[in-house]
TrEMBL record:
GO terms for molecular function: acyltransferase activity, transferring groups other than amino-acyl groups; serine-type carboxypeptidase activity. This is Carboxypeptidase. Its main location: secreted. Its EC number is 3.4.16.-. It comes from Cicer arietinum (Chickpea). The lineage of its organism: Eukaryota, Viridiplantae, Streptophyta, Embryophyta, Tracheophyta. It holds the Pfam family Peptidase_S10. One of its GO terms (cellular component) is extracellular region. InterPro entries: AB_hydrolase_fold, Peptidase_S10, Ser_caboxypep_his_AS, Ser_caboxypep_ser_AS.
Amino acid sequence: MVNLLLVLLHISLSFVLTQSAPKESLITKLPGFNGTIPSKHYAGYVTVDEIRGKNLYYYFIESQSNPSKDPVVLWLNGGPGCSSFDGFVYEHGPFNFIKSKTKGALPTLQLNPYSWSLVSNIIYLDSPVGIGFSYSKNISDYKTGDIKTAFDTHRFLLKWFELYPEFQTNPLFLSGESYAGVYVPTLAHKIVKGIEAGAKPKLNFKGYMVGNPVTDDRFDGNAQIPFVHGMGLISEKMFQDTTRECKGNFYDSHSHSCSHMLTKVDTALGNLNIYDILEPCYHGETEKLNSKLPLSFRQLGKTDKPLPVRKRMFGRAWPYKVPFKNGIVPSWPQLMSSNNHVPCIDDEVSVIWLNNPEVRKAIHTVEKSVKEWSLCTNIEYYHDTGSMIPYHKKLTSKGYRALIYSGDHDMCVPYTGTEAWTSSIGYNIVDEWRPWLTNGQVAGYTQGYANNLTFVTVKGSGHTVPEYKPAEALHFYSHFITGKPL
């Protein structure tokens, strides 16, 4: 009798679990995919500001393993200005997208054997508002920055867990890459402050991971010249001359002779794919090099005089060192190539699929509010938080786990700068530099610090690690969210 009651209780709890999520957000079919969706998918909007009509779009995938127990992971792409469907389509989503042989036709979707949804629940969020399918009824909301983005995304999470209460006790992790190196720690800081202040629902936050992350202007900015020298992309003489004229400060030197040498470096590197120095810089089927966009890109506009570089932003959407006024980070479309695509990135599959009316209907987007989806969107964005190093130190000192990973062939945010700033925090090394393996082969290197801070490189990978090295990415991801060392 007792066993029967336990069985009935289990059935009842299971029924509650499956019925809690909003039914109207359930996705029942996806154009281009003919099989059975391996777990439940939901999508829709969370209104983070009722008065202004500010709505953030999410796509949620239940874990294919044990959704009631597995962690919930929020994924954010960078920019600032890029949709998290970048991660969904090209990196670690549940499907691989196979381009159609018929131009403009829908791609074919096949199951991705390295999807992160194999081991976790995952939310792909278009943030900040104005990105991807997220929108506001007040267009002034498309002027935003780090602080406001963290506030809105925290509000999104609180409201999302109210919509999906069955996941409130699951461990919560944040993850992202590139400019999400700013999004993630600022959001984590906001979450922790909310927990300490008694915000409801209480988020079961455990930690975060960021890949090739924008972190600190000086560490990131000064890493590139030594990196390209170490990779054999500039000569020893050019490196020595540049180091001498810039006095080792490649980020914000105002010396004319330094600017002259950096321009020479730009010329040497101009045709490279900044996201992966081993990959060609082509777009789609044009088979033509994109227009040269130099690494330092100090001449924004048509001036013939070098402009002083005050700050520097990197990301899938913003890899170039540029001057920007009043702290504004120029967003992607301002530097797009003439065919309105991201330089060196083939976004054709995602653009075709996400602008298809049947797909838009299936994933519950608001057609009138977002007429055309693009990988990256033009918004006015302010970097108003400064270096992320104090955020990392404060979070890890409170016991939250942090994994900082870097594709070691990324010229956009080189691993050398990331390795340097993780070391600069000053924690004791508890796991000395060593290789980590997948399938018996060296996949990269790792160094572990006190307070659950870990630095990892991924051998042969570019800026978006799960895109270049999906098996290796799933390996370190699954280890991190379960608390297992590599």
